[in-house]
């Protein structure tokens, strides 16, 4: 983004996301997936006091980390509540208020096809490449001028939805921020 289009935080000097902490059912399986399949270096491991569990951190690029807790007594996740039931290109996006819907990891735009093929070769179930745009359904059938991000979705061993996302243009232009925010009164539940 250039200085003309970049929104400015006048309250705090924030530098990005330090880490996002998720919960896994099997830390070894999580390490195998994030380090072995996705290649993220494991950069810090913590044994929590009093047998509470573990907290491991993976480098996900750009000075950012993805972290996982393992709790011996964590309840099972509920598909469609704690995370979407399936991939967005298969018609699933819903998750509960307060849940983490998905984690999006930034990748270069010219790598999306290559990374999709690479994940498939590693045995990962990956959705189709989505060209997100501002059309009625938010997806263009092919790359075109209105596409602002291209992405692929897949799940980790615990069903956490992961996205490789590639910005295709700068955001923050006047037409990018034009919708009125909905309120709790707009909910149908």
TrEMBL record:
All residue ranges annotated as the VOC domain in the record: 16-167
UniProt xrefs under PROSITE patterns: VOC (PS51819)
InterPro entries: Glyas_Bleomycin-R_OHBP_Dase, Glyas_Fos-R_dOase_dom, GlyoxalaseI/FosfomycinResist, VOC_core
UniProt cross-references to CDD domains, sorted A to Z: VOC
SUPFAM superfamilies, alphabetized: Glyoxalase/Bleomycin resistance protein/Dihydroxybiphenyl dioxygenase (SSF54593)
Superkingdom of this protein's organism: Bacteria
Gene3D superfamilies in the cross-refs: 2,3-Dihydroxybiphenyl 1,2-Dioxygenase, domain 1 (3.10.180.10)
PANTHER family: GLYOXALASE FAMILY PROTEIN, METALLOTHIOL TRANSFERASE FOSB
Protein name per UniProt: VOC family protein
The species this protein was found in: Streptosporangium fragile
Lineage: Bacteria, Bacillati, Actinomycetota, Actinomycetes, Streptosporangiales
């Amino acid at each position: 983004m250039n200085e003309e289009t970049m929104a400015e935080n006048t309250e705090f000097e924030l530098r990005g996301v330090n880490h996002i902490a998720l919960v896994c059912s099997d830390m070894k399986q999580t390490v195998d997936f994030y380090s072995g399949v996705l290649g993220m270096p494991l950069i810090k491991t913590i044994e929590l006091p009093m047998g509470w569990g573990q907290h491991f951190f993976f480098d996900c690029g750009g000075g950012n980390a993805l972290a996982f807790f393992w709790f011996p007594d964590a309840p099972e996740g509920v598909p469609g509540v704690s995370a979407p039931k399936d991939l967005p290109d298969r018609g699933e996006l819903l998750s509960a208020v307060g849940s983490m819907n998905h984690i999006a990891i930034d990748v270069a735009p010219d790598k999306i096809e290559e990374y999709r093929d690479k994940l498939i070769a590693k045995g990962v179930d990956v959705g189709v490449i989505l060209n997100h745009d501002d059309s009625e359904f938010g997806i263009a059938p092919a790359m075109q001028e209105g596409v602002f991000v291209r992405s692929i979705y897949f799940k980790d061993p615990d069903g956490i939805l992961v996205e490789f996302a590639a910005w295709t243009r700068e955001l923050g232009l006047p037409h990018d921020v034009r919708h009125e925010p909905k309120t709790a009164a707009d909910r149908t539940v």
